[in-house]
């Protein structure tokens, strides 16, 4: 049984986020700080992904002042408390192969020092010493003490309500360790 460690190449990996509200949606990007995947005989067996929450960017708000204000709000305690928690982490606990190259990854997602078990489907391709992984993770933000304008916690929000789920669409590139 051959075990290979693949380290995430942050510069070639990205996460697109989408948050929805009654009146529309916002979207942007967030960076991956580091991470790795462990493969046994070419199949994922474990690993982790460290997300750099301080790198969050908003792409749909083009006015610089409004964008800066919104980014400051996402960094605040209403959302990600970036000063206190500059990273989020996903630690793979189990892997189920759905079909060739398609997996269900389950693990602990930690945001703001709060951890919950979650999972998602991903497609994985390996080509020589490179691994590509893509998928979508849907997160209920209220589980991580991100309650701002949530209908679960506040009444009569009308069209200011922000939906609890947000999406992370990711494409990750990792390279085999040279050891």
TrEMBL record:
It comes from Flavobacterium bizetiae. It holds the Pfam family YceI. Residues 5-175 form the Lipid/polyisoprenoid-binding YceI-like domain. Gene3D superfamilies: Lipid/polyisoprenoid-binding, YceI-like. InterPro entries: Lipid/polyisoprenoid-bd_YceI, TTHA0802/YceI-like_sf. This is Lipid/polyisoprenoid-binding YceI-like domain-containing protein.
């Amino acid at each position: 049984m051959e075990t290979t460690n693949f380290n995430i190449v942050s510069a070639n990996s990205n996460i697109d986020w989408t948050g929805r509200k009654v009146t529309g949606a916002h979207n942007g990007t967030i960076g991956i700080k580091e991470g790795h995947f462990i493969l046994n005989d070419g199949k994922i067996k474990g690993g982790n992904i460290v997300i750099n929450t301080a790198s969050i960017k908003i792409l749909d708000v083009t006015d610089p002042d409004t964008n800066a204000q919104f980014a400051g709000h996402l960094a605040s305690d209403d959302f990600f408390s970036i000063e206190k928690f500059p990273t989020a982490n996903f630690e793979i606990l189990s892997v189920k192969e759905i079909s060739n190259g398609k997996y269900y990854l389950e693990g602990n997602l930690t945001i703001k020092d709060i951890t919950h078990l979650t999972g998602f489907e991903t497609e994985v391709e390996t080509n020589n010493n490179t691994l590509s992984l893509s998928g979508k993770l849907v997160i209920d933000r209220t589980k991580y003490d991100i309650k701002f304008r949530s209908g679960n916690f506040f009444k009569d929000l009308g069209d200011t309500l922000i939906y609890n789920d947000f999406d992370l669409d990711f494409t990750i590139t990792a390279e085999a360790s040279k050891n």
